[in-house]
Amino acid sequence: QLQLVESGGGLVQPGGSLRLSCTASGFSLDTYAIGWFRQAPGKERKGVSCITRSGDSTNYADSVKGRFTISRDNAKNTVYLQMNSLKVEDTASYYCAAHYYCSETMPYWGQGTQVTVSS
Question: How far is CA 8 from CA 54, 56, 57, in A?
Fold first, then answer.
């Protein structure tokens, strides 16, 4: 059974950093593109970043460009989202999702991890 599990969320002060992990079980992650999405309370879910199967192409939402970095370690079956210079407006539940290509609609989703940026 294909499963994605996010980890690494938590409470951090503005300007701080967190690294989220998305680990796959039941399948080999290198056969899928992986996207990170986030949803704040009362707001719609939005794409944050995506990385292709090979890792040779990435994309980012304008709001996180220059602050977030997506990467993958296929040997560990894990995709990471390094988040630096965090802002209060980055507070949200973060989800990873898998598809054969980067897309706003992905068929496989994790349960999410909460990121709270607050002083």
Answer: 23, 24, 23
d(CA 116, CA 78): 22
Distances (CA, A) of 48 to 15, 28, 39, 45, 81: 18, 23, 10, 9, 10
Q: Are strands 68-73 and 58-60 parallel, antiparallel or unpaired?
A: unpaired
Q: Report yes or no: 8 and 16 within 8 Å, Cβ to Cβ.
A: no
**pLDDT tens-digit map of 18-30:** 999 999 988 888 8
Nearest to 5 by CA among 19, 23, 32, 30: 23
Closest CA to 37 of 88, 78, 98: 98
**Per-residue pLDDT tens digits for 55-65:** 999 999 999 99
Question: DSSP label at 110?
Answer: -
